[in-house]
């Protein structure tokens, strides 16, 4: 069974940086894409960034130029480098994985909390 384990969340002052990691454990045939969503209190979950296998990375307009998604060559870990953090970036950040088409459903991590103080 595939599991995702996030790390790197915490408390940071506005303008600071954090790097989130999402490690893949368990066997999986192939990965189509991975990425990050976030959910702030009282708000809907929103896509932050995604890194597809065959297409360009995608970012939410609110994080473009500040956040960078990357991965290692083996798709074992996905990272989210967050710079110039703002209080409105405060949320639980969830990693996800989409297997190759037809091989299974989306897998979610447990979430990691990012709190940005003003």
Walk me through the structure.
By secondary structure, the chain is mainly β. 0% of the residues lie in helices and 53% in strands. It has no helices and eleven strands. It has strands spanning 3-7, 10-13, 18-25, 31-39, 46-52, 58-59, 67-71, 77-82, 91-99, 107-108, 112-117. Strands 2, 4, 5, 6, 9, 10 and 11 form a seven-stranded mixed β-sheet that branches. The termini are far apart. The model has no long low-confidence stretch (mean pLDDT 95).
Quickly describe the structure.
By secondary structure, the chain is mostly beta strands. It is 0% helix and 53% strand. The protein has no helices and eleven strands.
Silhouette: globular
Calculate Rg over CA atoms: 14 Å
| Mean of residue pLDDT values | 95
Distance between the termini: 40 Å
Number of helical segments with 4 or more residues: 0
State the total count of DSSP E strands. Answer: 11
Report the β-strand fraction as a percent range. Answer: over 45%
Which series of helices and strands comes N to C? EEEEEEEEEEE
* Helix content class: under 10%
Instruction: Point out poorly predicted stretches.
Output: none
Question: How many strands, what sense, and barrel or not for the largest sheet?
Answer: 7 strands, mixed
Structural class, by secondary structure, is mainly beta
